Fold this sequence. Notes:
By secondary structure, the chain is mainly α. It folds into two domains: 1-191, Growth Hormone, Chain: A, CATH 1.20.1250; 194-395, Growth Hormone, Chain: A (Up-down Bundle), CATH 1.20.1250. 86% of the residues lie in helices and 0% in strands. It contains 18 helices and no strands. The N and C termini lie far apart (43 Å).
Amino acid sequence: MVSLLLAIIYLIFVSLGLPDSLLGSGWPIMQADFGVPSSYAGYVGMTISGMTIVSALFSTRLIRRFHTKWIVIVSIALTIFGLLGFSFSSCYGMLFLFAVPYGLGAGAIDTSMNHYVANNFPSSVMNFLHCFYGVGAVISPNIMALALRYARWNEGYRWTAYIQMGILLVCILSLPLWKKNAQSEKKESTEGAGIREAIGQPGVIATLISFFAYCAGEATCFLWTSSYFVGVKEGVSEEMAASFGSLIFGGLMLGRLISGFISNKAGDIKLIRIGIGIELAGIALIALPLTPWIPAAVGFFLVGSGMAPVFPAIQHMAPEKFGRRFSAAVIALQMVFAYVANTCMPMAFGHLQQQVGIWVMPFYLLFFAVLNIGFMEISERRVKALKAAYQLHKQ
Length: 395
């Protein structure tokens, strides 16, 4: 029964990744259909991100009041409504209307599932979980590519909605499987702390800054890797540079797969330290002033592999580090900081590279990698000091 529930949870994270890549892959054709500038994709993306932040902020209240399975079902249903709405949109303004359920569905399911897994499963499951998110994010551009080849961009959203409907049906049929942890969830829902109370706990703010720094580096790589090769390396065609955009995704998926097998033995904090060490090695390769593109390509793959365990490990350690009472609120805050970083920091780098040059990218990544590990170590020391003082007081 537990194995079957895990399979459902992995499927839920595939569904979470599915809608995330559709806008970027379909926008060149959508833009032409709507007759708007290419930059207008950013406004739609920011609306989706804004709604995701709102739902993440309210997710602690939802987790207190409802079982995770109901949050999952309603969230997937909202996403389906948003996808179908996009597919039927006949003008640019309609996208903003359907961006609301599109974003609201993502934030609540992300926070509630990360909280559920962090409290009920080992670290390996969290790493595999985020690997499956990557599977969904890789599948959806291919769905859009098929739609553009054989139909129109509208069908890309519609076909993805149909897949989400199938996943929703599986989730509804799996409702009895969630009974195992229903009692512990009920206890957490009555004892769980709110966001204001959680943010005052020692080490929480440092963890949030660390998490923000991680997401800033990751999101910047997602958007600007291909542009870096075009702007800095010789002999790289636009087609080749576009394929290099998958280096980070490939590194993340492989890194999380490997982390899933070793995380229970290594532990979360050790995985983060090893991961950031690998990331720093990758950044050093990217920064080498060499004309050939191969060292930089290896570097970006290493950056993705090193980043891989950081996100799952920070989220998984929340219940043990801050206590189960605060874990839902801490994870919700982490997701808010993640979405803010994903929305703002790639844009900030865009302005920076416009003024300085895209060669500055490895140094931008280095800044956030150091910020990531630095504030994580500060958080660890504060929590350890608090626990040591508590043990001394008990004696």
